[in-house]
Amino acid sequence: MSMSNSLKKLSSCVLIDLDGTLINTDGVVSDILRKYLCKYGKQWDGREALKIVGKTPLEAATTIVEDYGLPCGVDEFNSEFYPLFSAQMDKIKSLPGANRLIRHLKGHGVPMALASNSSRANIESKISYHQGWKECFSVIIGSDEVSKGKPSPDIFLEAARKLNKDPGECLVIEDSVPGVLAGKAAGATVVAVPSLPKQTHLYTSADEVINSLLDIKPEKWGLPPFQDWIENTLPIDPWRIGGPVIKGFGRGSKVLGIPTANLSTKDYAEELVEHPSGVYFGWAGLATRGVFKMVMSIGWNPYFNNTEKTIEPWLLHDFTEDFYGEELRLIIVGYIRPEANFPSLESLVAKIHEDREVAEKALDLPSYAKFKDDPYLTK
Ligand code: ADP
Ligand code: RBF
Ligand code: MG
């Protein structure tokens, strides 16, 4: 057994963060701040998202008031912000894989605590919009129930105590740096799921950094494995996007034998934000040509380190000509793996061919094949 393996502690329970880990609070907060700051002639540029992620409500408010030089006190800001936020709470969506994770753990009787820097009352309101969630957690702890919020370990220590567990037996799942620090300070094992892109380097103290909850492997930490993967693919709620094919990065992907038909990112900005980067597959329709199997990446293509998140769909068919300008419709039905970096172009290309084989085979399974006839693809 390797050193790291023999040192790895197995977990018997899970302490999980809420905002940015299970639900996309950030989306709603950004929308509110964008409008709210206009009132003071300021423009929300999203950069503060980095600074407020994982903070207590008071710290986050202080940061915003100071950074934007608002002519109001923190209390006044809060008294204006919270009613706006409460009115939008029902619009906060669960993050991909969140529902699946907590239902899986609950189904296997794994004790779970919700441990958040938010206030207890706010935690309760937020989860009330997600059916069945409250029942999944035997313990809920907010930062107003301990003396110090994260990065202090108090919240996790209190959650472990209430679960009757040693902190060393707990697996903490966290999106923020303060949360990861809190989990480690408590003596727990910590899996980080950064909610903001390209931040992996800040999470060095975590035991593992994953890209999204779709990538969590509970068995790595002594917890029951997921059983929903089929033939190296994970079924997802199908989503649909379409539009005319435009010019992509012009990197000559075709020369590599991997042409990817790009859509204008403006037309599906919301879907791009909602779906974690990674390699997915599904069906592609071109009105005059037919329906084809398709494998694609979503993200920043780490090998090329793009600045824009894009979707790169490769239609698994040999076309005799380009089809720029034609309407392309996609139904994405399953997930394969997170995006990765590679030491060489050859190894990237080899991996993409592996993805193609996985997708081609999986799409013959009835549960994925049935979408081939979806009218969206060709209407
Ligand atoms: P770009 O940078 O413009 O996306 P690519 O080298 O990725 O250029 O080529 C993509 C183009 O190739 C598509 O827009 C489409 O017109 C054409 N094409 C030909 N065969 C395929 C295929 N099997 N899958 C995707 N696009 C294809
Ligand atoms: N780019 C990456 O940097 N990392 C990846 O893991 C990756 N996976 C991909 C998987 C598939 C199925 C496809 C179609 C593309 C992938 N790409 C990835 C994007 C790739 O870099 C881009 O399409 C290039 O232009 C291909 O030559
Ligand atoms: Mg392309």
Polypeptide structure, described:
- With 379 residues, the chain is of the alpha/beta class.
- 31% of the residues lie in helices and 19% in strands.
- It has twelve helices and twelve strands.
- It has helices at 3-7, 25-38, 48-52, 57-67, 74-88, 98-107, 120-128, 154-162, 177-186, 269-274, 345-362, 366-369, and strands spanning 13-16, 112-115, 139-141, 170-174, 189-192, 208-209, 234-246, 262-263, 278-286, 290-299, 310-315, 327-337.
- The chain has a six-stranded parallel sheet, sandwiched between helices. It has a six-stranded antiparallel sheet with strand order 8-7-12-9-10-11, covered by helices on one side.
- Helix 2 (25-38) crosses helix 5.
- The protein is globular, with a radius of gyration of 22 Å.
- Residues 1-5 have low confidence and may be disordered.
- The structure holds adenosine-5'-diphosphate, riboflavin and magnesium ion.
- Residues 248, 253, 260, 262, 312 line the site of magnesium ion.
- Riboflavin binds at residues 251, 253, 256, 258, 260, 279, 295-297, 301-304, 312, 314, 339-340, 348, 352, 355.
Attribute tags:
FMN; binds riboflavin; 12 helices; 31% helix; 19% strand; 379 residues; transferase; binds magnesium ion; six-stranded antiparallel β-sheet; 12 strands; disordered N terminus
